[in-house]
Write a structure and sequence with these properties.
48% of the residues lie in helices and 15% in strands. The chain has 13 helices and ten strands. The strands form three sheets. It has a four-stranded parallel β-sheet, with helices on both faces. A four-stranded antiparallel β-sheet has the order 4-5-3-6. Strand 7 and strand 8 form a beta hairpin. Helix 4 packs antiparallel against helix 6. The longest helix has 21 residues.
């Protein structure tokens, strides 16, 4: 069986929509622009790296860029048995599973990006990847730092030996030292403007909750993995609550990949810009087959290979 996975913030890149401008999938851009009142075509065609680095622009552009690829993949007759998305990508997965219509998904992503940007401006924070240490060691390092009065939490459980932490700059400096004392090889700064998936995002969660209350959540047509617990969920009611919790909860991506493996998934196809999730799948699921597509040519290659057909 095959899972489609969808990337999150950080995968955006200038000109991501250029190859899609004359493709039938471009209608997705028009739908998202009408739903949000944003010029999504500008984000995908003309915005430079600096403009796309802003959280609100990064999230909306990545969501729509991934949906362009998904539309084309499905036009080619390819489908998955399961779906999952990393952080922002969870909204793309929910759209792919039929939990959210494109209009509702685009409005929620736009509001989520604004809310997270506002929260980041109100309380400065940052993120860093800790490499080479197990989950328990990184958790213990964060606990030690918080006991000393600084802010640091695990934000993403991405893959074995790759955990992302978030909090204050001082807190993450201290986590780096504490994690190395517990076996970590190194830490790397993540180029983001806030401490995402931590209590720093509480104001954003409150702001997003209002938009979630106005959105329509259907039941999932495909089993979909939730970031907050790494488990499969189906009910639209469940998903409305999970989406609210996601902003302040760590992304349990590695656990979700394990869930997909247990469900029988052996191949992971990354739909949208970048190949980060493919690397995580290789590191987490022994023997996994991976593929990625972000352009019409890459979609054609998937169709020709037959990768993506349920079975």
């Amino acid at each position: 069986m095959i899972a489609f996975t969808f990337p999150g913030q950080g995968s955006q890149r200038p000109g991501a929509g250029a190859a899609w401008r004359d493709h039938p999938a471009w209608h997705v851009v028009e739908v998202a622009s009408a739903a949000t009142g944003r010029d999504v075509a500008h984000l995908l065609l003309d915005a430079d790296a600096e403009e796309l680095r802003a959280t609100d622009n990064a999230q909306l552009s990545t969501y729509v860029a991934s949906l362009l690829v998904l539309d084309a993949v499905r036009r080619g007759g390819l489908e998955a048995s399961h779906v999952a998305g990393h952080s922002l990508g969870e909204y793309t997965a929910l759209t792919a599973a039929g939990v959210l219509a494109i209009e509702d998904g685009a409005r929620l992503v736009a509001e989520r990006g604004r809310a997270m940007l506002d929260a980041s401006r109100a309380r400065a924070g940052t993120m860093a990847a800790v490499l080479g240490a197990d989950d328990d060691a990184v958790e213990a390092a964060c606990e030690e730092v918080r006991a000393a009065g600084l802010d640091a939490w695990v934000a993403n459980y991405n893959a074995p030996g790759q955990v992302v932490v978030a909090g204050s700059a001082e807190g993450l400096d201290a986590v780096g030292t504490a994690a190395k004392a517990r076996g970590a090889k190194r830490t790397m700064a993540v180029a983001v403007s806030g401490a995402f998936h931590t209590p720093y995002m509480a104001p954003a969660q409150e702001q997003l909750d209002r938009a979630l209350g106005a959105a329509r959540f259907g039941n999932a047509a495909l089993p979909t993995v939730a970031n907050v617990d790494g488990a499969l969920h189906h009910s639209g009611t469940e998903w409305a609550a999970l989406a609210s919790r996601q902003l302040c909860s760590p992304v349990r991506w590695a656990q979700g990949l394990g869930t997909l493996k247990e469900a029988g998934v052996t191949a992971f196809v990354e739909i949208g810009p970048g190949t980060v999730l493919s690397g995580m799948a290789k590191r987490t699921v022994a023997g996994a087959t991976t593929a990625a597509a972000s352009t019409p040519e890459e979609v054609d290659q998937l169709v020709a290979a037959g990768l993506g057909a349920t079975g």
